[in-house]
Specification:
Blueprint (H helix, E strand, L loop, with lengths): L1 H9 L19 E2 L9 H5 L1 H5 L9 E6 L3 H12 L3 E5 L11 E8 L3 E6 L4 E2 L6 H8 L4 E2 L7 E4 L7 H26 L7 H5 L10 H12 L4 H12 L2 H4 L22 E3 L5 H12 L5 E5 L2 E9 L4 E8 L9 E12 L3 H6 L3 E3 L4 H9 L1 E3 L1 E7 L13 E4 L15 H6 L5 E5 L8 E7 H9 L2 H16 L13 E4 L12 E3 L14 H7 L8 E3 L12 H23 L4
Parallel strand pairs: 2-3, 2-13, 3-10, 8-17, 11-14, 13-22
Antiparallel strand pairs: 1-10, 4-5, 6-9, 7-9, 11-12, 12-13, 15-21, 16-19, 16-20, 17-18, 18-19
Helix pairs in contact: 4-11, 4-18, 6-8, 13-17
Bound molecules: flavin-adenine dinucleotide.
Flavin-adenine dinucleotide (FAD) binds next to helix 4, strand 11, strand 16 and helix 18.
Amino acid sequence: MAESLKNTAMSGTSTLLSVGQPGLAGNNNVTSTGADTLGTTHAQSHSTCLLHHDTRPEIDADVIVIGAGISGLAAAKELVQRGNKVIVLEARDRIGGRIDSRAIGPQDAAEGYARVDMGASFVHGKYDNPIYDLAQDLNIKVHYTSPEGEMRILDADGQMDEHTANRLGFNVSYTFFDASRSYAQNNDPSPGESLASYVFAADSPLFDGLNQNEIASAIQRDQQPSNLRWKAKTLGRSFSGWTGADLEDVALRWWGFERDTMGPDGMVTSGRYHEVVDHLADLVTSHANYDGQIRLGEKVERIHWDSDRELVDVTVTELRNNASSPSTSRTYTASKVICTLPLGVLQRRPPAFVPQLPPRKRRAIRALGYGLLSKIAVRYDKAWWRDSDKTTSYFILPLQEKITETMPPCSPELQRKLKPQGLMVQNFINIDGTAQLVMFLGADYGQAMEQADQNECVQWAHTLFKRYLSPTISSTDIPEPIGAIASSWSTDPFSFNSYTYIPSKPDSKDGLPVTPLDIAEFAVPIWSGALGFAGEHTHPDRYASVHGAYESGIREGKRAAIALDMHRKGEE
Ligand SMILES: Cc1cc2nc3c(=O)[nH]c(=O)nc-3n(C[C@H](O)[C@H](O)[C@H](O)COP(=O)(O)OP(=O)(O)OC[C@H]3O[C@@H](n4cnc5c(N)ncnc54)[C@H](O)[C@@H]3O)c2cc1C
């Protein structure tokens, strides 16, 4: 880490730094640095590699990295630091992939654009987490809130008594994060069992202590006690935002099997996650002694291994912002390729792999689950909502008799398919002082939201906030939003959803259970080591996360660099 910081300090200003700025997205932005000077301690340590570049004229780079998300940039950084020439090919006109920091609302003269992270925003775990370390080094604040008052559960008109709300809040996080994990470990559930089968079982800790509570509270409020169990269930369902899938679809057997980071989860200051990827991009492209390029707007269509030449050809379509100019295609050639295409892209719109991927890779692509987390961010000129200084997350619970009110604005047929669930809303005034609320919608709710008209979705969210988060202020006093964004991860052709999960249902073709080995399968290179894979979906311990994606990139960058070194030394 210290070394990478030293390198940053020495690097010049990269044009890619502007890519993350609002309105400045580059088009086919080519950044290249020469590798003609050696002299720093770091470059010297790898100078033998630079002096032995493959000089065949048809070669464009030692390694082509496909995708400029965090895994691709981590791989490229690792490779250039080890003296290799690297080209990163990225289809979008920005770097970062599922790290997507955006401007929201009008520009503030003093502070510039207000920002929000529409992709990753959490740093999961403080210890043994390279992203936390990077954030520290880059002075990006990670916010930790006190556990008290962190979560506030609101049912119809916010009337749930505090005792019951606290009990529900404790039950749901305990059941989801602790009890279900230890149940899976101690009871060895069968492959077909789902997380829902434990979380929603009649004797689940989700319902613990609700009986006495529920009766007292229900009598007081003239309600049926069973109503509280229903509320606990709807609250449990809101955790589909965490898994990206309905809890019915997630395998219980593998829930919590992984060795993950330690310590609390924190949140990066709104809209600053991109600084981590910008930093990596800078290391790749702007260091005088490194030889890295990031090419934006280049969509990979074909990856062809020529075993005779021991080279890989990667054909791209150059995407143009201007629809009237025709797309052109070109081919790059390298000794090795690292593919960081998201699992959703591999499943739904993969490039042509020639020769085709081996059966085990094809099975992993087919069988693994790839879920959806969607967000609606709404910005206001002031924080008008209740307990804004005390609450990090609100959970809005549906009303049994008005369940469609808390469902995204979609067709009645689609609404009939949605199961009632709570909605998580993050209050950024209590996180980093920004007057914005961000609603998280997992799985089917996210799908429904992203299919609807974006303005309608924003209006729906604003109406719900007014109704549930401010029962004491008359709605005429509540300001209108000054900015809003609704995500579209499910339809984005360069992600097609959000992140990986291990499904409870078996593979559709061979009928066998899906396991973490399917994720591990991606970490195995093919084509005699010429094609490797990185990305969150390739890290069995840390899939679905930024830190997992980053570590997978380092893993693959290192592997390719070692293989190239061995080749240069004739050690194969
Ligand atoms: C809404 C949301 C919230 C999240 N929240 C968190 C969180 O709080 N904390 C956390 O740790 N993780 C979170 N995640 C997960 C995390 O963002 C991802 O795991 C991680 O960023 C994935 O990085 P990656 O490099 O594997 O993939 P990506 O970032 O998706 O990078 C792959 C790149 O490949 C490019 N690409 C796609 N197709 C082509 C093509 N044909 N040719 C060339 N390039 C192509 C894409 O444009 C992209 O830039 C969240 C994800 C989402 C969507």
